[in-house]
Structures are given as C-alpha cells and as structure tokens.
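Please check this protein record:
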Amino acid sequence: MRSIVLILAAAAVAFGADQATDKAWAKVKELKTGTELRIFKKGAVKAVLAVLDEANDENLIVMVKNEEIAINRDDIDRVDYRPKRAPEGPTVEHHETERGPEGNIPTPRGQPVGPTVSSGSSVSFGGSKPDFETIYRRPPPAPKKPE
C-alpha cells in the first residue's frame, strides 16, 4: 500500500513538472518572429545570440549570423528575450544665437557690421535597447524514485 502511494506521489510530481515546463515553453512559442534571443545550451560556456524564426514543441528555429539553425528543446537550459519597445522618433534640437553690432566696426567696403546670427541643429535617435529578460528556464530534474 505504501509503495503505491509513493509511486502515485512521484507520478503527480513528474506530471506537475511536465505541465510547468510546457507552460513555460508555451511562452517561448508565443514570441514573435524577429525577437532577439539569448539561448543557453546544456554544457555550453557562451550563450547563443540569435533572432527567432519559429518555435514549436520540439525545436527552436533561429537565425544566427545569416544561418538558420534548429536547436532541440531538450538541449536548452535557458532562453532570454529582448522585449520590443515602441520605436522612438528622432529628437531634433535647433538653436540660434544673435549678437549685436560690435562697436559698429566698418567692413572693408566701409559699411558698419550689423547684428550677427548663428544657428545650428542636431538630430539624435534616442534610447538604448532594453535588457534581456528570462522567459524559459529548464526545471530541475525530477527526484529519483526510491528503490
């Protein structure tokens, strides 16, 4: 009787972990094509920086340096994404400075210098990219069944 209860409890924990994993992966599948990703693979030292093409139940299909690759879901420890921000338009700054005559200094033609105006403009495209946010993390392995 006791062993049946333990087996059922282990099955419930495993089933709950599978559902949690599927729910987290569903968020990855909802990302839009073109989303920037940082993918941490099992045993890899560096993350893979990629652009999402498609995510399905088995694979994450991404573009890495103009090459399309499929990464098996079982090989992924963590996926981070860069949220999209509303595009910011350019900021235009315009300034003018006016100076009066400097003691009516005559020009070479003999006419006094009038007021001078200097102006300038600058355009800046504001905002930096937002930081990556974790969207999927592989759950820890299920506890081993007691023998």
